[in-house]
Design brief:
300 residues; single chain; 15% strand; two-stranded parallel sheet; alpha/beta; 11 helices; six-stranded parallel sheet; Rossmann fold
């Protein structure tokens, strides 16, 4: 997704230094790969949690002061949704207070901050895709802590909300489904939770396009289209030639005893700000997810 920023602006961005947190996560690994492959920035430092503990203010300040980035992409987070319910302090430290550390350090070197947020900031009680400006009513500690992280930033920073993220690296539901399909296993998925899958490569491309054009504020970035988890599993099984009849539907209430955190029943994101500014939409999930699933399938 790119509409081709002016050459002068593109050149200015190439001369910039970028610091990335959360480089060992599935989005971080894909973004690090894209940055190195396309050489968009003059210097990139991609850090894992072990290399830069973003929850420790002194470590953040030390890293920023030493490197002097013009852009800080903060992907590091606590994303284990149910664990967040058990460890709320750890969740707020990783997802909210760390953003305060990042922003404070960024202001000392006049850097911009890019923060990855989530569809979990909405309650899921709506019936139409959520726009960037809709009321935030997170149900879970994870969602509340990520929204708290958003509130730490300024209008000049860039907040990106995404949903149902699936990529080549790390663990995700797509890889779980493909593994089950390979074994011809029966699986059960809820059919009363609806969202939009987001393929990481598309998410990274859109993020870099916004960053290169100096965009700020809040943007929703997800692939077009929506479906339930049950429909997603059947889609993947059919795609790779497994029997979709092996996928059974279930109600999310059946998971109440095993899942501590409430999930939004409907969390489709309307990429409204993107559309209104004339950017092309991210591809339909059926296109991007098919490509990724078949690539992963061929490697299994």
């Amino acid at each position: 997704m790119s509409r081709g920023p002016p050459c002068v602006l593109r050149l200015a961005r190439w001369l910039m230094r970028l610091l990335l947190t959360g480089a060992s996560g599935q989005v971080g690994m894909e973004m690090t790969r894209a940055l190195k492959q396309h050489r968009i920035f003059s210097d990139v430092v991609a850090t894992s949690r072990a290399e830069l503990d973003f929850t420790r203010r002194e470590e953040v300040f030390h890293a920023v002061a030493n490197f002097g980035p013009e852009v800080i992409v903060h992907l590091g987070a606590m994303t284990a949704v149910d664990r967040c319910e058990d460890e709320p302090d750890a969740a707020y430290l990783a997802n909210a207070l760390s953003v305060r550390h990042i922003k404070q350090a960024a202001r000392l070197v006049d850097a911009r901050v890019v923060y990855m947020s989530t569809d979990y900031v909405f309650d899921g009680l709506g019936s139409r895709p959520y726009r960037e400006w809709d009321a935030k009513r997170p149900l879970s500690v994870y969602g509340k802590s990520k929204f708290a992280g958003e509130m730490e930033l300024d209008p000049t920073d860039l907040v990106l909300r995404t949903s149902w993220v699936m990529g080549r690296y790390g663990n995700n539901i797509l890889k779980t489904i493909l593994g089950a399909a390979k074994r011809s296993s029966e699986m059960r998925f809820v059919d009363d939770q609806v969202g939009s899958p987001t393929v990481v490569s598309d998410l990274v491309e859109a993020t870099l396009a916004l960053l290169l054009e100096d965009q700020s504020g809040v943007y929703h970035l997800s692939n077009q289209g929506s479906l339930s988890w049950y429909e997603l599993a059947r889609f993947v099984y059919e795609l790779v030639g497994a029997d979709p009849a092996l996928i059974a539907a279930m109600d999310s209430a059946e998971l109440a005893l095993t899942r501590k955190a409430p999930r939004p029943a409907y969390s489709v994101l309307d990429n409204c700000a993107l559309r209104l500014q004339g950017y092309p939409p991210l591809a339909h999930y059926s296109e991007s997810l098919s490509r990724l699933a078949l690539e992963l399938w061929s490697e299994m």
